[in-house]
Amino acid sequence: MTGSGGPYFQALDYVSNRMDKVNGFLSPLDAGLLMAIDLAQKGAEIKGDLAEIGVLHGRSAFLLSCLARDDERVQAVDIFDLYYPNPPYNHPDAFIGNALSLGIGLERFNLVKADTTKDASRVTESLGRKSQRLFHVDGDHRLMHILADSKIAIDTTSPEGVIVFDDVFSYLMPEVTEGILKTFAGRTDFVPFALSPNKAYFCPPEHKPRYAAYVIECLPNNLDTEVRRLLDHWVLTFSALKPVVLRYFDKAGTVDDTMLHRHILGRPVDFPLPP
Fold first, then answer.
1. Which pLDDT score, from 0 to 100, does residue 2 have?
2. Which of 41, 164, 242, 246 is the most exposed, fewest CB within 10 Å of its CB?
3. β-pairing, 132-137 with 49-53?
4. Phi, psi of 20 (to 5 degrees)
5. What was the pLDDT predicted at 3?
6. Positions in the chain whose pLDDT score sits under 70
7. Do residues 107 and 73 lie in contact, with contact meaning Cβ atoms separated by under 8 Å?
8. Distance CA 211, CA 191 (A)
């Protein structure tokens, strides 16, 4: 995408003015978390593509495209098999139509049509091993799909990257909970560092203090942030019923990097494991 303003102008404009025009479930809180994570990665010169399994109509994929650098692409993976009016109507015509109506450039996307339970190796090859800096998983919520999607995400996310899972603790989606617990119990390469009401965020343990510092510093203080325990790791929990206004980001999409980095460098984030 192109446009006036600072580097985050398009992302802020999309979240504030266009995101609600797209069917989907990405919340302003999770949009803020993704932007803070992106800022942490760019501050550390972490590069790579951004990926999503479960594109639907593009609500979260469009935000990822706003965050991608000019030489990065959004790998959009979906089975893309349901035509209107069959719910959830995930045919690519819906995604492409939304992108065109919202002025979002399709050149940033690589659409990968695949059933990840049958075509995992092809999807992994298409994305590239250890090549994604940010991976959002929101595909089919049945157990076999969660296990397949988790493996693809782990295999293709870089050693400095972040993996995000949707509906991990929804009482309506218990197989997601089961799949995530089966996948990450005892793992040491990716560990949880943040939870929102809808999503769980994982990263390599050596990068956890940095990502935690950015999300704490960038998100406002009224989110009922607490430190909890998950899979024998501490995690930050966030909740928000009000619109999220990110700190250090102005309306033009410019970030006060100097002040932000000064605060973060003077405040390493690590917590004792809650009992």
1. 45
2. 242
3. parallel
4. -70, -5
5. 52
6. 1-4, 82-89, 241-243, 265-268
7. no
8. 12
Pairing mode of beta strands 157-166, 226-230: unpaired
Domain range list for the chain: 13-265
Joined tokens for residue 146:
């969660």
CB 107 within 8 A of CB 136: no
C-alpha span between 232 and 212 (Å, rounded): 17
Please give the structure tokens belonging to residue 159.
């050693």
Q: Which amino acid is at 22?
A: V
Q: What is the pLDDT of residue 87?
A: 58
Instruction: Compute the radius of gyration of the chain from its Cα atoms.
Output: 18
Q: List CB contacts of 25: < 8 A, sequence separation 6 or more.
A: 59, 138, 166, 198
Q: What is the per-residue pLDDT for 1?
A: 45
CATH superfamily of 13-265: Vaccinia Virus protein VP39 (3.40.50.150)
Model pLDDT for residues 46-96, shown as the tens digit of each residue: 999 999 999 999 999 999 999 999 999 999 999 887 665 555 667 788 899
| CA distance linking residue 58 with residue 63, whole number of Å | 9
Residue among 225, 192, 197 at smallest CA distance from 211 = 192
